Amino acid sequence: MMPSDPTMVPHEQDLRFENDLYTPKWVRGHGNKREGWCGICKPGRWLVLKNSAFWYDKSFTHGISAVTGQAFAAPKEIRRTEGSANIWEGLCGNCGQWVGLVTSKKKGTTWFRHAYKCHNHYKPDDSHKRPRDNEEPRGISTVEAYSKSPQCVATSKPESVALGYVNKESLNGPQGLSSIQSMLSII
After folding, report:
1. d(Cα 61, Cα 65) in Å, to the nearest integer?
2. Which residues are bridge partners to 47 per DSSP?
3. CA distances from 184 to 74, 79, 101, 136, 141 (A)
4. One Pfam family from the UniProt entry (predicted)?
5. Local confidence band at 184 (pLDDT 50, 70, 90 cut-offs)
6. Which of 65, 122, 175, 178 could make an S-S bridge to 163, C-beta 3.0–4.6 Å?
7. CA angle, corner 17, sides to 12 and 22, nearest 5?
8. What is the per-residue DSSP string for 78-93?
9. DSSP 8-state secondary structure symbol assigned to residue 176
10. How far apart are CA 91 and CA 83, in angstroms?
11. What sign for the dihedral angle of Cα 80, 84, 86, 91?
């Protein structure tokens, strides 16, 4: 079935770098009507890129950082809150706060919103990025610039926590869901 608007025919797009979980592999449309496919949503769906619908879905529904292209870190520990067996909290490995994992309206958004604000946003090394048409070469990569910055306190990237995807083929499949999402599905 072909759409009546030829600009809405989906086409494959290169990822920014290997194992980029954020960038939509399939896009359609142009300008304000440009959409990206979220295959993690069940069923999959098209989300507008221009108005941040795609960013919101990936960041706060699925817990994937737009900056790093990777899943946010999982809580170090999980516990039930005192006085309520139905409310769960996760211990943030960055700031040491106990943060609610779910809200009554949307599962996962509370933890993912905290992770978005609190967790370090390391960008992947620019050398892995796909080349863009008519782009001038850059001097040094983001990682190199960050490591040479006098304000830099941390000298290494944080260790990834068990939130990764099973394999490259499952990047947009249900097997690729994070451990937080798996846990939230049973809460």
Report:
1. 11
2. 36
3. 12, 13, 8, 44, 37
4. Rua1_C
5. low
6. 178
7. 70
8. EEEPTT-TT-EEEE-T
9. G
10. 18
11. negative
